[in-house]
């Protein structure tokens, strides 16, 4: 019910205000498990993709958003529930695997799941090397991956900004990548690496970003 309300009221309003360039929505399968793998420039990305995608897309979110008190806590809990976010305890020593397990369950249930293979936001605009969790999900769930390229969302909500600015941004949904049967005879580790690199290459082809050539490491003061 909350998601429908957001879809009917918030989405048209946000699109009317920001007028983003949205390309390739027809590439997102209308049903069934699918991964939307995107570059990551801003905290707002996890709102931009669900607002512009043609179906509900769920992202992982820290469970703190569900545990707040008072009016702010209620608003936060209802909002993140409405957009389909999946709560995860990031202080859990097994948080990384738990996150993948929750995502896998969502995909096997026929949901669309959004993920940033870079792991965290790029603060210099470069595209960092993808971590192989996205390939593990695709190969384990047997579902396609739609590469997504975001442009300009770093200006939409710059680092340190609490509220989004009214700026132009672009979202491009690329051609789905299907790995079915392609890595049956390839060692698991190599299969995940090659599949991840293919996904990142597709993102770069749309975003035009410079390659950083290394992983993007999160610092203590750098939230996802």
UniProtKB/TrEMBL annotation:
Q: What is this protein called?
A: 1-acyl-sn-glycerol-3-phosphate acyltransferase
N-terminal signal peptide:
none
BP term (GO), one:
phosphatidic acid biosynthetic process
Q: Which GO terms describe its cellular component?
A: plasma membrane
Q: Which residue range or ranges hold the Phospholipid/glycerol acyltransferase domain?
A: 34-153
The species is Ornithinimicrobium ciconiae
Which superkingdom, per the lineage? Bacteria
What does the UniProt keyword field contain?
Acyltransferase, Transferase
Q: Which GO terms describe its molecular function?
A: 1-acylglycerol-3-phosphate O-acyltransferase activity
A Pfam family of the record is: Acyltransferase
């Amino acid at each position: 019910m909350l998601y429908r309300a957001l879809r009917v009221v918030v989405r048209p309003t946000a699109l009317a205000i920001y007028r983003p360039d949205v390309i390739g929505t027809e590439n997102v399968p209308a049903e069934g498990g699918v991964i939307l793998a995107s570059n990551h420039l801003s905290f707002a990305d996890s709102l931009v993709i669900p607002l512009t995608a043609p179906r509900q897309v769920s992202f992982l979110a820290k469970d703190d958003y569900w545990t707040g008190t008072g009016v702010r806590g209620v608003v936060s809990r209802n909002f993140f529930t409405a957009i389909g976010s999946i709560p995860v305890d990031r202080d859990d020593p097994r948080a990384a695997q738990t996150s993948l397990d929750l995502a896998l369950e969502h995909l096997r249930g026929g949901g669309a799941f959004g993920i940033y293979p870079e792991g965290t936001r790029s603060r210099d605009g470069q595209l960092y090397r993808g971590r192989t969790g996205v390939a593990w999900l695709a190969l384990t769930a047997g579902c396609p991956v739609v590469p997504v390229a975001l442009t300009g969302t770093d200006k939409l909500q710059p680092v340190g900004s609490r509220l989004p600015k009214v700026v132009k941004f672009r979202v491009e949904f690329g051609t789905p990548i299907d790995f079915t049967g392609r890595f049956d005879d390839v060692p698991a580790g190599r299969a995940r690496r090659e599949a991840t690199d293919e996904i990142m290459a597709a993102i770069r082809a749309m975003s035009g970003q410079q390659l950083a050539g290394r992983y993007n490491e999160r610092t203590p003061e750098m939230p996802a």
